[in-house]
Batch of 4 targets.
Target 1
Amino acid sequence: MLIFLSSCDDKSDFNQYKSIENASWEANKKVLFEFVVKDTVSPKNLFINIRNNNEYSYSNLYLITALSFPNGTIIVDTLQYEMADSKGRFLGEGFTEIKENKLFYKEKKIFPVSGTYRLNIRQAMRKNGEINPIPFLEGIIDVGFSIEKLD
């Protein structure tokens, strides 16, 4: 059984989740992931993983990411993900009120430098017509980040 469980995770180079206190993601509060890259040749798929519950009241999710390289380079991205279908049903996996979404962040990414990388993720949700972010984004339970080898 132990061999089976470890073989299921052969694709994963990195997989970590951070819990959001009270399932309420504060505006401008960054979720930080640190990971070490040794392989600078093989392409990888990078995912942002979001667990939400029924308290999440939006059909989409805007995130701002900052990926810091060991050499000081920083790449900032603004991302939008669909969280619900046209009928308002949450996307993602799960049979209970908690849904897990595995969202593409970067596809076939080759890390050019070995060393320690840092990924900061923050929510960038705003109400229509407003400039300021939503102070507390309710319904986000966990934020995760994973790196997978390609087949």
Target 2
Amino acid sequence: MTDTRWVRSPVGPADQHFATRRDTKSVLVLVPHIVAGTRLLDLLPLLEADHRVQVVFTNPEADENWQANHDFLHAQGGIVLPWPQARRSTFNLVLAGSTRGIDDLTAPAMLVPHGGGFGQYRTWSPPGATDGPRSRLRTGLGPDQLMREGRTRAEAIILVHERERDLLAKVCPPALNTAVVAGDIALDRLTASLPYQDHYRRALGAADDQHIVLVTSTWSPRSAFGRHPDLFDRVIAALPRERYRVVGALHPQIWSHHSPWQIRSWLAGALRAGLVLLPPEEGWRAALVAADHVIGDYGSVTTYGAAAGASVLLDHNPDQPLLPGTPAAVLAEHTPHWDPRRPLIPQLRAADHARDTTGLPTRIRRLLSSQPGQAGQILRRTMYGLLNIPEPGHAVPVSPMPLPKPVPA
């Protein structure tokens, strides 16, 4: 949706006579979609309690984005600048979860991955092409992603693992001097939530003797939900309701593109049969902490589930390329693959056995982050370095996840 009206801005000189706090450093949070937004929200507690900093938000290229992103941004309660206004404003730092819109701003930028890191394969097709000969593979670390006109598009490119730095050295050496291996703040928050498993289980409505099965899907026709429209119905029908609580987590892009109304309509039968559906904004990490089993595809939520200690049954798509050595590729190699034609409970037991005999949770955690527990400190140090002011004296917070709030059935 397009909004050409400008708003009163605490970061613009025209409205400074309204300000109570003046001479603050301005931080623009660049949110092109909900997935980027939820990851950037993990960073904002690092700026809390600092009266020297003013944070505002924007949606780049807003007329080309989704209503869901507009609603997500305004739900945060911050100032949301229309994109034309943001482009003409001056900031001290831009936090970006995607490269979209980053070239139109002159402020120093910190680029953060919004999934399990930049170093994984994605299928890309030129505009107008379909899956086929014109499609090709790329990582998020190529020069087409990170460079423009001979310079890097961000002053700090955040990597989750030293492995990504090695990949960057091969595919885009000029960007090495901006790379910061910070670890994975999403994983750190998930880890901080593990002691509260019982609280999350109760919030999901699980009884003490029930197993929680989280069914998750990324987006695209290659995803679990794209390949199996009856994904949730199949799982619910295969599990006794008194012994299993089935929870669903769909990629925010599915919600954004098809609409919350359509998702609830498509899943109406599963919701009536007991599916606990999580909203797109948050809840998936709390559900992973609560889960005994995860049934999922190549999306990052499945990988985080393995790191949280759940057993994983993979909806494997051999047509989806995975970069060897990445968490998703290792998971695909060492976990059983879901067969919807066979009884489900024995497959869940096989997934339990694979987890318990391979040490997979520890291995996946090590692949997700080479700086475990350190992401907050490294990210805050990087942000304040770009802002050119000293870090606050208080400790860096690592907050557990809030209780999940399922979509009303």
Target 3
Amino acid sequence: MWVINWKYRNSFNFWRSLVGKLWITIICLVGCVLIALGLFLLPYIDTNFAESESRDIKRLFTYVCIIGFSLTTFFALFLFTKITQPMQQLIQAANAIRKGNYGTRLSLVTSDEIGELANTFNHMAVQLEDNIRSLNHEKEHLASVLRSMTDAVVTFDGEGKVILTNPPGEKIMQAWCDLDWAQDVEGQEVNNKGENSSRDVPEPLVPLFKLVMEHGGDQSSNVHVQQGVWSVQMTPLYADSVVRGAVAVLRDVTEEVRLEKMRRDFVANVSHEIRTPLSMMQGYSEALLDGMAASPEESEELIQVIHDESLRMGRLVKDLLDLARMEAGHTDMAMKEVDLVELLERVYRKFSVRSKEQDIRLHFECNLPSIVLQQADEDRLEQVFTNLLDNAFRHTPPDKNVIIAAKLLDDHRTSIAKVSIKDEGAGIPTSDLPFIFERFYKADKARVRGESVGTGLGLAIVKNIVDAHHGIIQVNSTLGEGTEFILQFPVNSSK
């Protein structure tokens, strides 16, 4: 049954071909001529010739008809070989190129129009293959450039659909598509489970996209997404002078914005911290010059204030220089073996006198005779413990406790020296804990009023020194109950 259908289909295709149509036309033309001749010639033969001669002429006429139809069949087969088969090869080659086989060529060698058509087709295929190869090279080059870019690149069509991204851009789109841009009652963004999963222009980029599509030209802006800041440069895509889409280049500038803010805050804080002692020194010195001191005691008091403020400004400048050197990586560390217990005992004795003067109970707790750090700077560590104890004493009221504790943590792989300094002072608000190691940050300005006012740089210096020792510093605090600083140092540092 399949063979019959195949033969029927091929025969049907043959009759629809150019040769089949030409053969039918020739057969019909020959048939019409022979029928016309038969209608006019046969009566004439019967009338003018004898019966035997008439029979011979009719037989000859029959032979001529058979030979004529045979010649038309042979002519049709000749046309099929010379025209239809080359055309079929040309069609197959064109279909192969249409499917992406650009190396397809015709091997027809004739001197007629079909041969010229085959040569033209082969030349066209060569040019097409070269053009496709060039386009692929350009595409691969563009893809390599996009992949090598650290900035995110996202291309949108005229309807705002994403049509092309590089790996950083794809990462951003996946992250942003999982966000719900509507904020909850607390003002924080929450995760969306599926409402914004389409590949459309993200909500922060919509205003820029509309400006580009409506007015053309480059548009740039900084957008804030959660805790990050992104610099966005959007450029229109043109097609025949019509904007058909836009290309957005996104760069994470969160760290740059943070550093710029830190720079502005640093200048403002330094100006504020220096202005206060300078104003006091200027005011009291002018009072002395104007003779406002009525007695030697008043003059001595004014001079003492000027001296204290000069010392305070000197401490501020020293702390600023130390912090600048540390953050620039130029900290001079005299690394050697340090007995941490011996160092803490020395610091404990140094603050014992102050604890009696302020009526604060100072305790030192350690069950080990020694804890030796293989690589540590003794002076810098003493500066760390001194700063932390100074803060504890300044913020702890009389008749309260300040505890220094040290112990060794050993998990059979690494040994960690743990030191904690705990006070029963005013404590630090939970909202301020993430920022207490920043420069000039003071959690509660009311807590630093008194005889000894800090510069706001002590904890920043402590953090840098601990980091230089490859250690960790943490803080736990409850408002109104006290604060505990926990420091951990590697006993055997391999760095």
Target 4
Amino acid sequence: MNIVDEINAIHREVGSREVSGEEAHTVLLRRTYDAAAEDVWDACTTPERLGRWFLPVSGDLRLGGRYQLQGNAGGEILRCEPPKLLRVSWVMGEAPGFSEVEVRLTAQDEERTVLELEHVAVVPPGMWDQFGPGAVGVGWDLTLLGLAFFLAGREIGPEKAEEWQFTDEAREFTTGSSRAWGTAYAASGASEETAAAAVAATTGFYVPPRPE
């Protein structure tokens, strides 16, 4: 894997919008896959396939139903328009506040698909001030990388992913991802000092120093 190419394969944007009178932060990721839109959609919505590259999912997996990712977020399926759009609420445990994820697929041709993932959330000020967009952005970068591996025939399920995160390859990707989100944060209007501090905090969280 070429780490630089994989980091550069993702376009990142940081923004904000008002949700029910509160300021919500947004992160947007865009990546192109060499696969048909129907195949990308199926990989993202079929439980058996989703569990092979992301996480096992359970629940009432239809419009209006509720889902739960093992050890991760859960919520309600708000919109489902195969093979183009999926929107879900995204709740971690009992955490309060607004949080939604929308995935949009656009077919470029029969074997090439653009995926956009937008996460909109009302984030506690202390968390945003410390980590900025990288707190969720790095996680989504890793998710889109996992999907790329899966569609290319290199599967990294939850167990392999846990092992992989300690490799030099993973540490290099995660560090580069954190820096890329710092660049996107600065482009959104954050000062260079604020963006640099967020990168340092995010990198320290995702890539802690190796034990001596």
